[in-house]
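Private note to self, pasted from the team thread so I don't lose it. Backbone tokens:
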């Protein structure tokens, strides 16, 4: 098992130690039982000593009961240790993911992270549970059985000594052959989960375009591929059991021949031969257990590597030694900012951005698709870190802030904001979990959401289904804006977050911003001129650069891109009525 992952055992160390200790006691008793049975046959029955038979029989019953108790408790502790280890692993991975920046998350797909948190951890849990119980039990059983056989008949013990390493070599060979195939299986599991996730999330689109057959075919292909890869791996592993059974039973037959000849010549007794056969079968069962656990470990090995990738991922953003714990105001400064999604060697998404936004200003940002509008604003709450230059909020480089402090004061409504399963109250209180009903209703009025909420039968107690699919796009956007306002931030960023509302509602939201939160810096990314026309400053983005900056009147005189957008929307009838 991976040493770094084993650190997640933590408070379950006691159970992890007790389980193998009890297994040792259980095995010790199990090994003694055949020895006593042999004595009953060779001493008690052969000598007609009923007292010896009774006394030894009672001892056998007591040992069997003790063995049962030890085995049951070992299984219980192993189950607790395995489940606890899995719980801690899930905790560690989930908390690690919370530290990731957008850049870190981009390294993994959502479906891949879900698979690692579920299927992969379950595989590791099962392997750990069986390792601390069965994989401890099997070698001890083999060694003690061999020792007992050696005391009875050296020739038979020698045969078993040769057989065990031979079968161990076969096991290792099979494991090495099967392991690469299991790795491929779990990579394809990610694709399978992604296909299912996409299909469920986009169910309305699939039905609207009558693409059910296409989606079924796509799912069928990846499902069949997973089946073929798993079958290929299992075909290799399947050789394990018959090879072991053939070898061991062949040895048992030879043991009977050798033992029978020894009984005839008087060098071995019947009870001893019986106990030797039992020891051989114990060795057989132990080897089969080893092979079974080995298969689980092979599967878990692939899962362990995938879990390790997440735990080894270095968060791109960490707090400095003594971070700033207070944001003074909503001033924003970009100083020669460059940014590349591909790192320093990649193509620049933002190029030499220089910008100053005063606290309390309303700033509009427009630009064509791919002009890096969203990338620009994501630098402010430090969702991404600049490649060069610096971004300042309240006169302080954002990299010097405590991340939680910074993001508490920069509310951002993303293009693809989601609502969570729960009531409307629950969703809005993501902005402030201690907010009163009156505060929730106030921000909903500011976001022009109170009107449609009051029309629901349960009003603010209306349940939102997963992803917010039971409200319209415009309603979802207004609820997300209300959630952001409840944080009472010094900076509010709307990333094309009013695109699904009509122009009248859009205007009312902006009016409420001016009147109710005048000291908050408001940045609005929009495609519609009407959404930014009354802003204090409008920034025109083009190909990752600031193409123009000024008021609407100034840009109409000086900026060609703004003129073209204005002409196409306002004079060309592009605006909503």
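Design output:
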């Amino acid at each position: 098992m991976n040493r770094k992952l084993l650190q997640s055992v933590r408070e379950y160390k006691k159970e992890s130690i007790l389980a193998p200790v009890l297994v040792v006691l259980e095995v010790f008793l199990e090994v003694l039982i055949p020895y006593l049975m042999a004595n009953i046959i060779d001493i008690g029955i052969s000598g007609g000593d009923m007292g010896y038979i009774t006394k030894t029989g009672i001892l056998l019953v007591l040992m069997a009961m003790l063995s049962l108790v030890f085995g049951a408790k070992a299984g219980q502790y192993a189950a607790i240790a395995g489940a606890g280890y899995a719980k801690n692993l899930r905790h560690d991975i989930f908390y690690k993911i919370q530290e990731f920046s957008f850049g870190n998350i981009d390294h993994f797909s959502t479906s891949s992270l879900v698979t690692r948190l579920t299927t992969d951890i379950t595989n590791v849990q099962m392997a750990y549970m069986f390792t601390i119980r069965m994989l401890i039990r099997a070698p001890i059983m083999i060694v003690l059985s061999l020792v007992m056989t050696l005391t009875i008949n050296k020739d038979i013990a020698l045969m078993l000594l040769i057989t065990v390493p031979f079968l161990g070599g076969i096991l290792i060979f099979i494991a090495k052959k099967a392991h690469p195939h299991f790795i491929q299986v779990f990579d394809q599991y990610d694709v399978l989960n992604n296909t299912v996730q996409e299909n469920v999330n986009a169910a309305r689109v699939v039905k609207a375009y009558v693409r059910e057959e296409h989606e079924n075919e796509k799912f069928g292909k990846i499902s069949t591929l997973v089946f073929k890869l798993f079958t290929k791996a299992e075909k290799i592993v399947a050789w394990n059991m018959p090879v072991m059974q053939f070898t061991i039973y062949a040895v048992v037959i030879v043991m009977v021949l050798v033992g029978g000849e020894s009984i005839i010549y008087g060098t071995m007794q019947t009870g001893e031969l019986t106990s030797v056969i039992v020891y051989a079968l114990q060795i057989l069962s132990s080897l089969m257990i080893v092979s079974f656990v080995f298969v689980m470990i092979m599967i878990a090995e692939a899962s362990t590597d995938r879990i390790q990738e997440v735990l080894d991922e270095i968060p791109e953003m960490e707090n400095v030694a003594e971070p700033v714990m207070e944001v003074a105001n909503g001033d924003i400064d970009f100083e020669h900012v460059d940014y590349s999604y591909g790192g320093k060697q990649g193509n620049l998404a933002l190029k030499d951005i220089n910008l100053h936004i005063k606290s309390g200003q309303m700033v509009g940002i427009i630009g064509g698709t791919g002009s890096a509008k969203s990338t620009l604003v994501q630098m402010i709450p430090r969702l991404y870190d600049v490649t060069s230059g610096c971004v300042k909020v309240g006169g302080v480089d954002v990299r010097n802030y405590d991340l939680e402090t910074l993001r508490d004061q920069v509310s951002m409504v993303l293009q693809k904001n989601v609502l969570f399963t729960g009531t409307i109250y629950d969703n809005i209180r993501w902005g402030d979990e201690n907010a009163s009903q009156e505060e929730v209703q106030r921000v909903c009025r500011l976001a022009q959401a109170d009107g449609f909420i009051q029309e629901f039968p349960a009003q603010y107690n209306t349940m939102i289904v997963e992803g917010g699919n039971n409200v319209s796009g415009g309603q979802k956007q207004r609820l997300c804006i209300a959630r952001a306002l409840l944080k009472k931030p010094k900076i509010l960023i709307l990333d094309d977050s009013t695109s699904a509302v009509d122009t009248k509602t859009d205007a009312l939201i902006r009016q409420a911003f001016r009147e109710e939160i005048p000291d908050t810096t408001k940045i609005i990314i929009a495609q519609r001129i009407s959404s930014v026309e009354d802003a204090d400053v409008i920034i025109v983005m083009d190909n990752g650069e600031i193409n123009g900056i000024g008021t609407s009147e100034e840009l109409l005189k000086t900026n060609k891109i703004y003129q073209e957008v204005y002409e196409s929307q306002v004079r060309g009838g592009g605006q909503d009525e």
